[in-house]
């Protein structure tokens, strides 16, 4: 059996090139001024190829944000473990989220998305809907812990959203809207630990 990894397929290389080109265009020109034509030219592919991978600019932008999130998670998402204490599990998940929120590219693209959404509420709703099509590992974890009887909530999605809000109040909104510096490692740990304590005090 040949254990050598297979080389990336051409279609995968083109998709990666499109994503890289789109990130560069969105950051350089903003959402409205970026076109699929310009993305295709920068990626050195045809416009038809871009549309074969992404049916619209909105879908392409959402794919970028999801790709950045997947990259921050690493190879495997952290699943709920019934045989381990809740707090260390939760802190580990939150620290991964904080790692993403410290990503300069993610923050820059979030600013692009917010600016685009201000000018077009309908577009903002579409972006949020597309991003919401994939449940984050935090929501899945809360849902699993609730199903196991270790969290007391009838609405795991709402509870997970509350927890995310605790984190983003320190590690997203100040950076995106006010240009505050990203949190240092010790600050990230403090936010993760205190948010976990507050969440578990309410729901555990």
Automatic annotation (TrEMBL):
UniProt DNA-binding region: 35-54
Gene3D superfamilies xref list? Homeodomain-like, Tetracycline Repressor, domain 2
- The HTH tetR-type domain, residue ranges: 12-72
Q: Which GO terms describe its molecular function?
A: DNA-binding transcription factor activity; transcription cis-regulatory region binding
Sorted keywords for this record are: DNA-binding, Repressor, Transcription, Transcription regulation
Q: The organism sits in which domain of life?
A: Bacteria
Q: Which ranges form a coiled coil?
A: none
**What protein does this entry describe?**
TetR family transcriptional regulator
Q: Which organism is it from?
A: Pararobbsia silviterrae
């Amino acid at each position: 059996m040949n254990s050598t990894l297979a080389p990336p397929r051409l279609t995968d290389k083109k998709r990666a090139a499109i994503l890289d080109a789109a990130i560069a265009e969105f950051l350089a020109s903003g959402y409205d001024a970026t076109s699929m034509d310009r993305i295709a030219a920068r990626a050195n592919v045809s416009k038809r190829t871009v549309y074969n991978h992404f049916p619209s600019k909105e879908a392409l932008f959402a794919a970028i944000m999801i790709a950045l999130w997947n990259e921050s998670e690493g190879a495997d998402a952290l699943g709920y473990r019934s045989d381990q204490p809740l707090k260390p599990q939760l802190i580990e998940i939150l620290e991964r989220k904080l790692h993403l929120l410290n990503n300069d590219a993610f923050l820059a693209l979030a600013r692009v998305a917010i600016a685009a959404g201000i000018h077009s509420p309908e577009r903002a709703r579409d972006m949020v809907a597309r991003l919401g099509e994939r449940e984050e590992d935090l929501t899945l974890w809360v849902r699993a812990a609730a199903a196991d009887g270790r969290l007391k909530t009838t609405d795991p999605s709402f509870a997970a959203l509350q927890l995310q809000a605790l984190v983003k109040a320190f590690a997203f909104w100040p950076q995106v809207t006010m240009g505050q510096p990203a949190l240092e490692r010790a600050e990230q740990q403090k936010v993760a630990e205190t948010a976990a304590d507050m969440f578990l005090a309410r729901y555990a």
